[in-house]
Amino acid sequence: MTEQYPKEQQEAMKKMMTFQMIYMVVMLGSLFLVITPSSRDAVGKLLNFALIPSIGFGYRYPVLTIILTGVIIGIILSIPRYFFTDWVKMGKMQNTMKAFNDAIREAYRERDMKKINKLNSMRMQMSMDQYQLSMNTMKPLMVISVVTILFYAWLFVFVGNLPYNYVAFPWDFNINITTAHFWIMPYWIFMYFLTELVVSYFVTMVMKYVDFSFKLRKLSRMAPSKTVD
After folding, report:
1. To 5 degrees, how large is the angle CA 137–CA 194–CA 64?
2. Rg over CA atoms, the chain
3. Are 23 and 135 in contact (CB under 8 A)?
4. Measuring CA to CA, which residue among 135, 130, 129 is closest to residue 20?
5. What is the DSSP secondary structure assignment for residue 172, as one 8-state letter?
6. Is the pTM of this model over 0.85?
7. How does DSSP classify residue 154?
């Protein structure tokens, strides 16, 4: 197998596998922290000193606390992810993949084996480029993911320490927060992930709009000066 690919691709695959291994170990360690009551309680009690006075509201507004935690994590995740993502390269790659898929479907429809073999030989390089782009985006997020896991562990402890069980959610005013589930997911976890997803998506869209608008205005100002020259 090693003789099939250039040395550069082999090195890239090696780096990619190493990163995936490290990422998996970090995520498994974080998962262990959340599912193990003793470590989860230790983290939760430690974070209580900072989070209970700021967003815990003395256990008076648990739904607001869950929403604010989702908002904070959504912002923490979306800002670095935006700056570490090469959006232009990602857009080019998506267009390339779309053209590639169209070409290979056409080749299979025409049963052009020469073209199919040529396209399949290109597939490996394209996959490597995709993995490389994903890896560059995921590297800084690995540290941030650990922070989000810590917040998640704190929420477990926060909900478990509530002095009452029944709270009002937007869609039901009498929910037992410790036992009620939305399908297979506890209500409070569903609320947390929903908030995080919405905030993360909204922040990313706003940043993309502002950033790309600024770059387009800058390009439009440069264009007339080049024409004059």
Report:
1. 115
2. 24
3. no
4. 135
5. E
6. no
7. H
Place of tokens 């030989």: 121
Count of positions (residues) in the chain? 229
The conformational region for residue 57 under phi > 0 = left, psi -120 to 50 = alpha, else beta, is: left
Closest residue by Cα to residue 82 from 145, 152, 141: 141
Q: Would you give per-residue pLDDT tens digits along the chain (229 residues)?
A: 444 556 666 676 777 778 778 878 887 887 788 888 888 888 888 898 889 889 999 899 999 999 999 999 999 888 888 888 888 888 888 888 888 888 888 888 888 888 888 888 788 777 777 777 777 777 767 777 788 888 888 998 999 999 988 888 877 788 888 888 888 888 888 899 999 999 999 999 999 899 889 888 888 887 665 555 5
| Cα gap 91→12, rounded to integer Å | 22
Q: Estimate to the nearest angstrom the gap between the alpha carbon of 17 and the chain centroid.
A: 19
Task: Name every residue whose Cβ is closer than 8 Å to that of residue 22 and which is 6 or more positions away in sequence.
Answer: 142
Region at 5 (left for phi over 0; alpha for psi -120 to 50; beta for the rest)? beta
**Alpha-carbon gap, residue 158 to 62, rounded angstroms:** 8
What is the bridge-based pairing of β-strands 172-176 and 166-169? Answer: antiparallel
CA distance 223 to 225: 6
Using alpha carbons, select from 33, 38, 31, 61 the residue that is nearest to residue 159. Answer: 61
